[in-house]
Amino acid sequence: MRVDQYLTSLAATLAAVPREPLRAVEEALWQTYLRDGTIIICGNGGSAANASHFACDLAKWTLTDGRRRVRAIALTDNVPVMTAWSNDSAYERVFVEQVISLYRPGDTLVAISGSGNSPNVLRAVEWMAAQGATTIGLTGFAGGKLAGLAQIVVVVPSHCMPEVEDAHSAICHSLAVALGERISAEPV
């Protein structure tokens, strides 16, 4: 059955995701929280859905009574701004124009791109890096250009876009859970 083949392949892909970069991402998100920075997330298509979902999980799953909340925003969630920049400038500027407006020192960008070659994602990473911000890339395939631009990169070892996007979803869930657990473990 094809469903069984897909799920077996996905399980193998998840098992092969390198853990050291994941630990580095977890630590970068923790440090962003400690300095009261914002975790800014972007992506296209399925990666846009993962960006929105990740921002939601960071805002909700990390809640602990008596603790400061996590600042997280998905640049994919303001459709009017995205269409305005696409129409008036260029689609490759939809994320960078938003980060230019939103960025504060201490913020971190999580850029999600299955191929690692989305020009709008790359422009945001370039701009944030030029500000000295922490940049994180979640990608697949061979990593694309994103692997050479982001400071911390997790490359899902698959050339199947649905598997890459599923793995990114699982990675984002694991990071939100881990951040919530670290916040809960901190003394008040």
From TrEMBL:
<dbReference type="InterPro" id="IPR035461">
    <property type="entry name" value="GmhA/DiaA"/>
</dbReference>
<dbReference type="GO" id="GO:1901135">
    <property type="term" value="P:carbohydrate derivative metabolic process"/>
</dbReference>
<dbReference type="InterPro" id="IPR046348">
    <property type="entry name" value="SIS_dom_sf"/>
</dbReference>
<dbReference type="GO" id="GO:0016853">
    <property type="term" value="F:isomerase activity"/>
</dbReference>
<feature type="domain" description="SIS">
    <location>
        <begin position="29"/>
        <end position="185"/>
    </location>
</feature>
<dbReference type="Pfam" id="PF13580">
    <property type="entry name" value="SIS_2"/>
</dbReference>
<keyword id="KW-0413">Isomerase</keyword>
<dbReference type="InterPro" id="IPR001347">
    <property type="entry name" value="SIS_dom"/>
</dbReference>
<dbReference type="InterPro" id="IPR050099">
    <property type="entry name" value="SIS_GmhA/DiaA_subfam"/>
</dbReference>
<dbReference type="GO" id="GO:0097367">
    <property type="term" value="F:carbohydrate derivative binding"/>
</dbReference>
<protein>
    <submittedName>
        <fullName>Sugar isomerase (SIS)</fullName>
    </submittedName>
</protein>
